[in-house]
Design brief:
About 25% of the residues lie in helices and about 25% in strands. By secondary structure, it is of the alpha+beta class. Strands 4-5-6-7 form a four-stranded antiparallel beta sheet, with no helix packed on it. The longest helix is centred in the first third of the chain and has 28 residues. The radius of gyration is 48 Å and the shape is rod-shaped. It starts with a helix and ends with a helix. The model has no long low-confidence stretch (mean pLDDT about 80).
């Protein structure tokens, strides 16, 4: 091979690399200062800013309290009713009798709407939330506090209720259900 052929061959080999080199130069222009305007804005707006972290709050030590109520009677236990029967006051509700219909309602939801009298026996007419009228005589029960009817007059029904006080003892209280004002007129 002659010297001229060899020079030509080397020149052709180099000519192949010229487009690759130009492409590399063009790519370096693309990877120059990326997001320059954003970096400049951040630099301007962060001048003079100093972050301040507040110290963590002081941890307060809480003294543990020992739960000591295991020996107390559970207020929702059915045995409380049995214990109430043995209480010092001697007053306790009769849980062995069948419940009457009007014991399913709060006394506040029951209304006295009138009376019936046959001879000497007086019965009160009671309107319940189920929109039915019920006859009540002395000895019947009403309300959810074991309320027993003790007297009936033309304008009221007197009840003796058995309720539990804050100490867990059963006490009696008198309640009066009066004739509904609309019915009196």
């Amino acid at each position: 091979m002659s010297a001229s052929q060899q020079i030509l061959r080397e020149a052709c080999g180099m000519a192949r690399w010229i487009p690759v080199a130009m492409f590399a130069v063009l790519l370096t222009g693309c990877f120059g200062e990326e997001h320059g305007d954003l970096k400049e804005w951040m630099a301007q707006n962060s001048e003079g800013l100093r972050g301040k972290i507040e110290p963590a709050p002081e941890v307060k030590i809480v003294e543990p309290v020992v739960y000591e109520a295991f020996s107390l009677l559970d207020p929702f236990n059915a045995a409380k009713m049995e214990l109430a029967k043995k209480s010092s006051s001697g007053i306790a509700p009769n849980t062995n009798r069948p419940k009457e219909v009007l014991e399913n309602y709060d006394l506040e939801k029951l209304r006295m709407v009138g009376i019936l009298q046959q001879g000497k026996q007086i019965q009160a007419l009671i309107s319940a939330p189920d929109r039915n009228l019920y006859r009540v005589k002395v000895g019947n029960y009403m309300g959810q506090n074991f309320g027993m009817v003790v007297a009936i007059s033309e304008t009221e029904v007197k009840l003796k209720e058995i309720v539990e006080d804050s100490g867990g003892d059963w006490i009696e209280r008198e309640t009066i259900l009066t004739l509904d004002e609309a019915e009196q007129n």
